[in-house]
Structures are given as C-alpha cells and as structure tokens.
Amino acid sequence: MADAIDSDAADADEPTAAFIGLGLALGAGLGVTLGAVIGSITGDLGFWIALGPSIGAGIGLLAGLLLASTGWRGD
Predict the structure, then answer these.
(1) What is the pLDDT of residues 1-20, one digit of tens each?
(2) What are 21-38's pLDDT values in tens digits?
(3) Domain ranges of the chain
(4) How far apart are CA 39 and CA 50, in angstroms?
(5) Helix, strand, coil in percent for the chain, rounding step 5
(6) Between 2-42 and 45-69, two packed helices, what is the crossing angle to 10 degrees?
(7) Opening angle at CA 63, ends 21 and 9, nearest 5
(8) Taking the CB of residue 12, how many other CB atoms lie within 10 A of it?
(9) DSSP state, 74?
C-alpha cells in the first residue's frame, strides 16, 4: 500500500516539474529577447540583456506554479 501511495505522489509531481521547467525556460528565453529589444531602445543593451532572463524566469516560474496548482494534466 505504501508503494502505491509513493508512486502516486511521484506521478503527481511530474506535471508540476514539467510546468515549472517549461515556465523557467520559456520565461528566460523571452526575457533575453525582451531585454535585447528594451536595451536597444534605451541604449543600455548589456544591462537589459543581463536583467531580462532573470525577470522572465521569475514570471515563468510564477506562471508554471499557477498552472501546476490547477491540477491540470496534459494526458
């Protein structure tokens, strides 16, 4: 019985990890792009390219956690 409970818990964590990982990856990638655009407009490209992925990853992490909290599974 304990093995079944442990495997169910592990299965429930897989979508959570996928949503968080996907959110971080997409957020950081979009953050680089957004940082390059803002940096080229403001003239401070290095600062925004360095800051963009951090902001994007933070937003992506929040989006991934929000999706994971809904309990949705992409089966």
Answers:
(1) 455 555 555 555 777 888 88
(2) 899 999 999 999 999 999
(3) 20-66
(4) 10
(5) 90, 0, 10
(6) 150
(7) 55
(8) 12
(9) -
